Amino acid sequence: MIATLKFTTLLLAVVVCRATQDYGYKDVEEPTLGDSQYGSLWPLPQKVQMSTVAFKLSGVSFQIVDAKESSSGASCSLLQNSSFCCLSTDELSVDSPVAVLKAPKVWGALRGRGHGFYKSINRTEIQDFPRFTHRGLLLDSSRHFLPIKVILANLEAMAWNKFNVFHWHIVDDPSFPYMSRTFPQLSQQGAYHPYTHVYTPSDVKMIIEFARLRGIRVVSEFDTPGHTQSWGKGQKDLLTPCYSGASPSGSFGPVNPILNTTYDFMAMFFKEVSTVFPDAYIHLGGDEVDFSCWKSNPDIQKFMAQQGFGTDYSKLESFYIQRLLDIVTTTNKGYMIWQEVIDNGVKLKSNTVVHVWMGNKFEEELQKVTEAGFTTILSAPWYLDYISYGQDWQKYYKVEPLSFNGTDAQKKLVVGGEACLWGEYVDATNLTPRLWPRASAVGERLWSDKDVKDTNDAYSRLIQHRCRMVQ
Length: 471
Ligand SMILES: *[C@@H]1O[C@H](CO)[C@@H](O)[C@H](O)[C@H]1NC(C)=O
Ligand SMILES: *[C@@H]1O[C@H](CO)[C@@H](O)[C@H](O)[C@H]1NC(C)=O
Ligand SMILES: *[C@@H]1O[C@H](CO)[C@@H](O)[C@H](O)[C@H]1NC(C)=O
Ligand SMILES: *[C@@H]1O[C@H](CO)[C@@H](O)[C@H](O)[C@H]1NC(C)=O
Known about the structure:
Helices cover 32% and strands 20% of the residues. It has helices at 77-82, 106-111, 148-160, 185-190, 201-212, 229-234, 260-276, 292-296, 298-307, 313-329, 340-343, 362-371, 393-397, 408-412, 431-435, 438-447, 455-470; strands at 2-4, 47-56, 63-65, 91-95, 98-102, 120-127, 134-140, 165-169, 217-224, 239-244, 247-255, 281-285, 334-338, 353-356, 375-378, 414-421. β10 (239-244) and β11 (247-255) form a beta hairpin.
């Protein structure tokens, strides 16, 4: 593919936007702000060679033209539509007012878009590819409803930072905004508002397509058996009745794992989900199951005895998850699960992706999970909903995902990570500025080479990258 350049690209952005660093007091170490030899590139490509030969660019007639040998063909509208201010990726060379871009797949060509209107570009050669294949971001649309435009804005920001997985934690205890065709009463009863605070089938479709055009997969999460209070409002008998002494207390616990109707419901529900979300994976949650309600319920106690589970309620959890996994397997989807599922000894299909989130000793967890042969993604050090004073992006930036003890084969099983922004204190008014550019630090960690770890250099580039995103 040959691109005739008029204006483009990520190189040499002459964006001047300097923050002053006078906070009055300093309890965090500030990096030094200098100029990066890489200008404003973010995330840093695997290989960049810039020369001092500069070309002037003008914005009038920039276009992307397919090379004769390009397999993308003239009809590749995915690239054409993003060509507006774009260029990228596996191999890019700017040499005279023509830039040559080579990529084995359209997603690669899409990935390294430049964002902005730059006036000059030096003769440059870039070879690029991501270090990790799974570069995700989790947003939570249950604790606070997230308007569609906020989700779209963040998909756009994700693309600028080369994230490629939107992990949509769509429902949870507080609300059920997903509008199900099969069980419309779930959002009717469980959303904050049945019409204004829901994602209709066409909303979901639009978000998935908007993401797809930016090379981003949408992995939906329907977390069970815990985190399901909102499900219970529209689906009778789905949740376990908790007892106070000999009688029901009126409150409900996790999904009721001892009823056949539970599994009938899950089969129909996940059949729908598997068609609505085209991605090959569904995230099934499985975290933080509170056993106290199960323990209080005499029917559950009886079932435990019948099954020979003793008083080990993690066996009951495993019983539920096992059946759920069998159900989801029939939809031909792979699944992702939070780490507790494996910690509790549930038998998993070998292609399960285990999501490590617990901050405590996550290196040991990575070691354990990969030793068991499972593909793994890491979120533990990247809970961006935990905020602190000053430049906490450095803390995310300095993480080395493969620092755990393990063989090369084990390390290969860590396919990437996800930044998580849980929604307790986040809604449309503050989500975007809270998330960016802090998530950009995770973006570079997951994309660039492991030796790219100079925080001073990163700081210089990140400041300019932030300005670019603001623009
Ligand atoms: C680009 O070229 C100019 C001279 O044309 C030079 O001063 C500058 O250092 C070059 N930039 C980089 C990043 O090499
Ligand atoms: C590209 O844009 C054109 C015109 O806006 C639109 O008709 C077409 O569907 C778009 N292609 C893709 C893949 O989005
Ligand atoms: C639940 O299903 C199992 C297996 O299909 C069956 O043996 C059992 O009788 C059913 N229980 C009830 C209460 O219907
Ligand atoms: C790796 O193993 C060494 C030696 O057993 C141990 O000292 C170290 O703490 C381990 N590192 C991690 C991150 O688990």
